[in-house]
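Researcher: Good morning. I'm working through a list of sequences from a screen, and I'd like to move beyond sequence-only analysis. For each chain I'm collecting a predicted structure so we can compare shapes side by side. This is the next one on the list. No need for commentary yet; just the structure.
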Amino acid sequence: MVAPAARRSLWLLGLAVLALHLLLLARMSLPPVASAAAPPGALQTRVLAPPEPPATTPPPRAAAPQPAPQSKAAQRPALVRKAAPAPARPASKVASTDTATAAIAPAPATPDRSARLQAAYASWQAQQAATDPAATPHAPPTESLPTPLPASLPTVAARAEPVPAAAEAPAPAAPPAEPQAPLANKAPLAPKPAAAPLVLPPSTVLSFDVAGHVKGFNYQARATLTWQSDASHYQLRQQIRLFLLGSRAQESRGRITAQGLQPEQFVDEAGKTRRAELDFQAHQARFSDGEIATTALADGTQDRLSIFIQLGALMAAAPERYPRGTSITFATVGPRRIDPWTFTVAGPEVLHLPAGDIPALKLQRLPRGGDERRDTLWLGTELHYLPVRIRLAEAGGDFVDLRLSGHESP
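Model: Good morning. Structure tokens for this chain:
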């Protein structure tokens, strides 16, 4: 049998264990009460955190950012759950889930509560403006914030800092150079480049021995090239006399300008006389027997005879400007039309001519387009760059070759 003292000790121990269980059960029931009371306490604490309100009123969605404070309130039951026995954990999870759901779901806003939240947010803005002047330039972007909540404002402000940088981005896209473009168009035109220097030869009569081939027939002839000029006008005539076959002549007349020769009339006499009249004031060329009656006339145009003297005048004035490979192009008037003639400098040569050994500069005109004619011109470098040899060749094999035999003053 158990002694009375031992029985008393067992009763006391049982009462102690029962009291301990009751105490533990009482503490296990505390988390739901604390979690139910947590949201109001958390809301009261967060609302009272900002300072005095400013004059501006924020948008009405002020109650949404409370998740941060309530997450702290939810952590308090979590500490109790760790210390509580295992059977109490499901109840604490339910309580925590209910608390999180209450934090996410928007609480019904009463008039007094909404006013207090707006006033608290306004006071928080006033405090930020008063304590941090550097943040003042970023105040305008807050107007575009979707949720002006106190809890999210620091994050939004950090994101709002790049907004001015984005606003500055259009600055490089609008350089002042483009508005100045119209001014450049209104600027006075640049002066025309100075005319190439020219040195015209003195009046001279050149004599040539002629060898040719036409339609299977070889022939010999004599020719003259007469150049006459004064201060303002010139006359140039080339004539080839064929024994028993008559003669052929070409003549160019015109003015002498700062740009060189300016033909006014070109005449070709080959059984039938054809004329080309050049009117540089009207910029028109008229043909007596041409493919078209009139055509446009550009400044600097030459004819098929004056071009030889014009080329020589350019070379005589500045031979260093025309090294080997240099090309010179002129619009050239013929008896029936105007064609572009391009001469290329081939280089110096020494010719063995009837007039003797003569140093010369060779120029070539190659075929272009439908024109199969090849012209080669040699200008005497010691004879004022006058022509000392002229060879005109057709694609079918016909040619005429004029070689200097003498020269004299007229």
